[in-house]
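Before a colleague's protein record goes any further, I have to sign it off. Thanks in advance; the entry in question is below:
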Amino acid sequence: MLGTSRTAPSAKYSAGRLLWKGLRKADWPRAWREHDLRKSYDVVIIGAGVHGLAAAYYLAANHGITNVAVLDKGYLGGGGSGRNTAIVRSNYLTPEGVAFYDRSLSLYNSMAQDLNINVMFSERGHLTLAHTDAAIRTMRWRAEVNKLQGIDSEVIGPDRIKDIVPSLDTGGNSRYPILGGLYHPPGGTIRHDTVNWGYARGADAYGVEIHQKTAVLDVLVEGGDGPGGKGPGGRAVGVRTSRGDIAAGTVLNCTAGWASIIGDMAGVRLPITTHPLQAAVTEPVKTFLPSVVVSGSLHVYVSQTDRGELVFGASVDPFATYSMRGSLDFTQELASHVLQLMPGISRMRLLRQWAGLCDMTPDYSPVMGFTPVEGFLCDVGWGTYGFKAGPVSGEQMAECIATSATPKLLAPFSLDRFAAGQLVGEKGAAAVGH
């Protein structure tokens, strides 16, 4: 496990000292500690992915709240935070979404310095292709919304697309001709595991406790209108775990894939369905793909890592399930669509594929903030785009908990927007917008 001392984020070792310790095979200090589970905490966060870890870090760093426990039934970053394709961007469709993700991108840009860890951020540009007139109209819509929010984003034609990504087939005779695209230069990729490790190490340095292999079995609620005193009108007073009960002043649900299950434990019904999202990676080759390339019409996106692998993804599987197994159907469809864009990679070998779970809401936007159960908050429903929002979600949820008020950036994503009919429709920029 990599890391510096718990006095992080300040650096402890010089380059020479690091080399000397490496050659001696010395014991490295742990990046975060293991703890006995206490009987009570001010805040219990369910889910040790980027959202939960970021919330814990910002609670401590920005608000001085350090009596915090982060619980995960598996290992740190073992869910969606470690299974995504590590793409970040802010060129969304709605003004609310653009402002939110732009703040997240800003935090990603300064993360290496803030957390004193190399997160390998690569600002390589994000290119969303349009194959139809309708897609071009949507791109122009998004570009205008982006520009009004001060985001660097524009619609470009096939000639410039060819200049940016020479390997794309921009000829007019292809089955899915490229008519244009939305180009977003600030977009790029970042090392997802390192983001998780950085937040975990930073939170630990402030005294936050991270408890892996600690399953939450129930959310303890008193005074609710539903069965067992749960549901609206009640108050969350703690959680029941595989290691015993914990009292808590606030319980934050930061799970992905299991959000609705945790919500049910508190008597809070969430408008979420869970679908697998599959991805795959090829053998490494010489770098030739300088930008992230997305095609919503073909339901595929691709980027190239610093080591040379091509990382592919698609849309979520059409059926709701908790299975995380890969499928041959996905591989066949993915290969067919990618080769429509880049015929030259036909001889590359696919090395492996995997899947993660995505919680989808009706408007493709998250559910964040307070719920009808006092003391039970949610940061869930992130679909295929939760990793992009990890830093800002943690920052804003920490402020929400510390001040007992909803920050401006969170207000559009409250749970009660569904009852009020005030949806934040991001499907046009988030369905396969990766």
User: Anything to note?
Assistant: The chain is about 30% helix and 25% strand. Residues 95-115 form the longest helix (21 residues). Confidence is low (pLDDT under 50) at residues 1-11. Residues 33-117+192-271+363-430 form a domain with the FAD/NAD(P)-binding domain fold (CATH 3.50.50.60).
